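User: Show me a protein chain along with its predicted structure.
Assistant: Here is one chain, sequence first, then structure tokens.
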Amino acid sequence: MGCSDSDLEFRFTEHMRVERQLSDKTVFNYQRDLQRFRETLQLIEFTSWLELSERPLRYAVAELHSEGLSGRSLQRMLSALRSFYRYLNQQSICEHNPALAIKAPKAPRRLPQTLSSETLNEVLDTPQDDPLKIRDLAMMELLYSSGLRVSELVGINLSDIDLGSGSVIVEGKGRKMRQVPVGGAALQAIQLWLKERLALADYNEEALFVGKLGKRLSSRSVEKRLKELGEQSGVAGNLYPHRLRHSFATEMLAGSGDLRAVQELLGHADISTTQIYTHLDFKQLKSIYQNSHPRAKRREKN
């Protein structure tokens, strides 16, 4: 074809920018990832993109990993390289894609951030007389009480909550409906909010939680309000809806040890998603062990 590597990269990124209409930031990321691979491959016998094979590519991935690049970053870079070769294949510039068979080192799964029950009690037990703050505490109580996603919270209608039985019906991922229990503190907070809601909600509005204009709250609004509440209360780190969900799951698993039940409560389709909380629980147990067992810490030699 008579095209240099830089020409091929330029044609690819222009394709992503013009035909795929990706953002400038995304296109820049593609350019940066391809350049990083090319610079690493040039340390060995690399001639061109058109002649690249799996073996030198594996070397490049290993080299970048040894330099401290995370598995997550390498996954992203390999994804960019696969897209680059798919474009070259579609344009009949080359027929192979050496990145297809290459896997990045597994990225360690991040343990979710949680809040202690003491911290949550301190925030939730603070009396409020402002209608919107009463609503915010009710939302926070429900998120923590039932382990809801923020999208599930804002989707709740008045008809979904049953104060008598202490339960709520929510629509989870994949539009799957599930019924989850609601604790006494959350029910009490919701009842306080319902009195304030009468003066705020539009007549035909079905949403349980509404904003000052009387319409259903958005997920972004809930996130913003909880962040402000956390800052006002002096919570370490951000207070966000999913952190309350993580705290709920950790408390439930630590108290019951029933992974399947926690999976059902959270609405996880795959139990492997729920299993991350077993790792978190072990981390807490290890901390308790290290601080409690008389021979847990290595003794200093004289």
